[in-house]
Design a protein that fits this description.
single chain, mainly alpha, 2 helices, 92% helix, rod-shaped
Length: 84
């Protein structure tokens, strides 16, 4: 024959098991999300890539400005030749 405390204890243990399962599911979900977060090395590589890109854009911008100045000079010469 079971005692009244046995039912209470069984019920309490079942609730604790359910809570533990919920915590384990939450931790598993957090681990999955953390697996998707980029690691430090990936950020450092991105940072290095951005520096290279900035340098390339800066160089191309300088080249473009130089070409624009040359085109302006040629256009001015053409205008002068047409006017003469």
């Amino acid at each position: 024959m079971s005692r009244p405390n046995d039912n209470y204890t069984d019920t309490l243990l079942e609730e604790i098991r359910d809570q533990n399962l919920a915590v384990l599911e939450a931790v598993g979900s957090i681990r999955e999300e953390l697996a998707l977060v980029p690691k430090r090395e990936e950020f450092e590589q991105l940072q290095a890539d951005v520096k290279v890109i900035k340098t390339a854009v800066k160089d191309q911008s300088a080249d473009l400005k130089r070409h624009e100045r040359q085109l302006d000079k040629h256009e001015q010469r053409l205008r002068r030749l047409k006017a003469a």
